[in-house]
Amino acid sequence: MYKLISRLLLFGELGADSILRNVANIIRDSESENADKDELVQRSFREVKHILDLSTDCGFDEDLWQCYLTYILMTNENSFTKTCERVGSRDGSVNYFAVKDFEIFKELMHYDFSALEERLGIDCFTKICSYKAIPKRDRLYNHDISTQVRGLRDKLCKAESGQKIFDIVTDYYAKYGYGLFAMSRAFRINRSEGGRLDFLPISNVDNVMLSDLLGYEEQKKELRDNTLAFLNGKKANNVLLYGDAGTGKSTSVKALINEYYDMGLRMIEIYKHQFGDLSEVIGSIKNRNYRFIIFIDDLSFEENEVEYKFLKAVIEGGVETRPENVLIYATSNRRHLVKETWKDRNDMEHEGDIHRSDTIEEKTSLAARFGVSINYNAPTPKQYHEIVKALAERNGLKIDEAKLKTIANSWEIRHGGFSGRAAQQLVQYLESKQDSEP
After folding, report:
1. How many angstroms separate the CA atoms of 67 and 131, rounded?
2. Beta strands 326-332 and 265-269, pairing class
3. Cα separation of 390 and 411, whole Å?
4. What is the layout of strands, in order, in the sheet containing 291-296?
5. Most buried residue, 91, 304, 314, 425, by CB count within 10 Å?
């Protein structure tokens, strides 16, 4: 195996501590006359554990070794994967080297570990090549990564040649790209101890669709139209969804990545304390062949908070133009985002002047940078009852309409007023009561 990976050219940058490279070194060292068998067994178990850990996080099953190699092909960043993501595979000399690398991966996919296991008296590699994972809920692993890796693995392990693998993999790069952005639809950011900015896939994305949100048809249409224009390379605006709590603002935004994931839409959720990292985030994604929505949920600022100035500069007003593949969508209960006070009017030039103060202009200018503002009002009592009724029917609840209305009225009083959230919580409560009945 170590002779095989030494011949990798485009995919040769595996990292000094990659599982593949470590396993290859174990095989090489095991062939030495002075090999320390116990030490090699320990090293083998360590790498198998790393594969098992990766498989648990990503939901791999069956042949974990083939899943791992597929994962390498999907995540490796090199000149070839970058080009294929941006323009697809085209005629060029680089294709010759790619096919050669894929011929090596074909051999690795079907590598026979029996000689190594016989020398060391172990069978762990054979076990992970025919593995049965313990069934687990989707929220315990990244379902997007699992689906993509296992689907591509099934195709690769049946490929008859390096050229066939080339066709399969380049088709994948052209459709999805490479790396974590190819395999996941939503991310958060984290600053590591070394100061590096990392993108962390969100494994338990809600499978909500816009149609699941009852009512608000005009609001959903405006949001959908702007997003489709963005995905189709047309002019689109940053969006502010504002209004009463529990009306579906966040749900509407989250639904977009489920609706348009296959069109290359990705979402990065940013928190207020991370606004200072926004420029670096955008710099990391501006050259990728995806469309990114930077999502800021429940956006608002108190009087003494100044993080909004970072956001203003990024949205519009900084030296660097916002790239065409990035938009910012935010939700807020406040229309103007930054809390205003009466003392903000104290810096007016002349008492009684009709012009608003500079302080007020400074605070309201953030909301003005969102080209599209969509209002989500709380439903009327009639609309609230219709939402409760529709949700009850959708979930198969058999309750008399008059009784359901009475229950809904009582629930609204104790749970913050009329809202879609209150209606959803009520139906979930009624479902739990129904399930617990004998």
Report:
1. 11
2. unpaired
3. 16
4. 197-201, 186-191, 265-269, 291-296, 326-332, 239-243, 372-376
5. 314
Distance in angstroms (rounded) separating the CA atoms of residues 320 and 313: 9
The pairing of strands 197-201 and 186-191 is antiparallel
Bridge pairing between strands 239-243 and 265-269:
unpaired
Exposed/middle/buried for residue 179 (C-beta within 10 Å: 0-12, 13-18, 19+): middle
End-to-end CA distance of the chain: 61
Beta pairing partners, 372: 239
Query: Residues 372-383: pLDDT tens digits?
Result: 999 999 888 898
Pairwise CA distance, residues 231 & 432, whole Å:
40
Question: Residues 285, 85: contact at Cβ < 8 Å?
Answer: no
Q: What is the pLDDT of residue 355?
A: 46
**Residue for token pair 């054979």:** 126
Beta strand 186-191 pairing with 265-269:
parallel
Q: Which of 339, 334, 338, 356 is nearest to 347 (CA)?
A: 356
Helix (H) or strand (E) holding 322, with range, is none
Name the token pair of 153. Answer: 């693995």
Chain segment 197-256, per-residue pLDDT in tens: 999 988 778 889 999 888 899 999 999 999 999 999 999 999 999 988 888 899 999 999
- Beta-carbon-side half-sphere exposure of residue 53 (alpha carbons within 13 Å): 7
